[in-house]
Design a protein that fits this description.
By secondary structure, the chain is of the alpha+beta class. The protein is built from 3 helices and 8 strands; from the N terminus they run αααββββββββ. Among the domains are: about 30 residues; about 130 residues, Sortase, Chain: A, CATH 2.40.260. The longest helix is centred in the N-terminal third of the chain and has 43 residues.
Length: about 300
């Protein structure tokens, strides 16, 4: 038996003949398969081309082809799914950024619009009092007339002292400059502030309370037994009596509706009101000064 030769030991002509024989064998095998299945018709032998003559049979030790493993689809599918998730996440993130950006732009536009709008003028907020104004010791007291700190709760005295140090606003044309109460012959100037020094000059308007003619509570106070005794006869006012307030522009007429006695700590009588009101406050009784008399009047058209 001839020794098997390796492909590299063959000449080019021998390799060519081997390829031709290989192709012929493959063709014959296909034809046989087609004949068995009835797909071709058998031909006579003399119509077939003669077989290629080979001087000798050659055995070639060709390596067997390795079986090709089918492609692995699962890792590929997993990668495609992962990439799809990344794309979806990117789209969702982009939509979120766009939505958030629109919200931020709307908020900025609103802030700019609010900043450009001119604020509506409002009255200065009412400075909350701890006790009603005009409180003092009687002039008959051994120490004479002075601010009555005993009326103020001890733990609130530092706050009252700090409020007394607040600067007074500059009077404007809409603020009261004079008060007249014909029934008790009052005709006095009105000053801003109702502290000890201010009430030496006349009737004091509580800082932050309404001005004449405005909706709200205008709080005025004066002494009854010192510094001119301006509100000496406040207790004689009756419903229907007039209170006239003057500004630099015009006069406003109020009519008394109520008179009452309260404790010095009943500061609720100074609270803002929805209607145009004036509240007159003074110490009471005369030369005792341990209470307050409060007279309320309403603006008349």
């Amino acid at each position: 038996m001839a020794k098997a030769r390796r492909p590299e030991d063959l000449s080019i002509d021998e390799l060519r003949r081997l390829l031709i024989e290989k192709r012929r064998a493959d063709r014959q095998a296909r034809l046989e398969h087609f004949r068995k299945t009835g797909r071709v018709v058998s031909l006579s032998a003399d119509t077939l081309p003669p077989p290629l003559e080979t001087p000798q049979s050659i055995e070639i030790d060709l390596p067997l082809p390795e079986e090709t493993a089918p492609p692995r689809q699962r890792p590929r599918r997993a990668l495609d799914g992962f990439l799809l998730l990344i794309e979806i996440a990117a789209v969702v993130g982009l939509l979120f950024i766009l939505f958030n950006g629109v919200s931020v732009v709307k908020a900025l536009n609103q802030e700019v619009a609010l900043a450009l709008v001119q604020p509506t003028p409002t009255a200065t907020p009412l400075v909350m009092a701890v006790v009603l104004p005009s409180g003092h010791t009687p002039p008959t007291d051994p120490g004479g007339a002075r601010p009555n700190e005993a009326e103020i709760p001890e733990h609130l005295r530092p706050m009252v002292q700090s409020l007394a140090a607040l600067p007074l606003p500059t009077p404007g044309p809409e603020q009261a400059i004079r008060i007249q109460i014909p029934a008790i012959h009052v005709d006095a100037p009105v000053v801003q502030g109702d502290g000890w020094e201010q009430l030496k000059k006349g009737v004091g308007q509580h800082i932050g309370s309404a001005n004449p003619g405005e909706a709200g509570n205008m709080v005025l106070s004066a002494h009854n037994d010192i510094f001119g005794e301006i509100f000496r006869y406040l207790d004689q006012l009756k419903p229907g009596d007039e209170v006239i307030l003057y500004t630099n522009q015009r006069a406003y007429r109020y009519v008394v509706t109520q008179t009452r006695l309260v404790e010095p700590t009943e500061v609720n009588v100074m609270a803002p009101t929805k209607t145009s009101t004036v509240t007159l406050i003074s110490c009471y009784p005369y030369l005792v000064d341990n209470q307050r008399i409060v007279v309320t009047a309403q603006l008349q058209p």
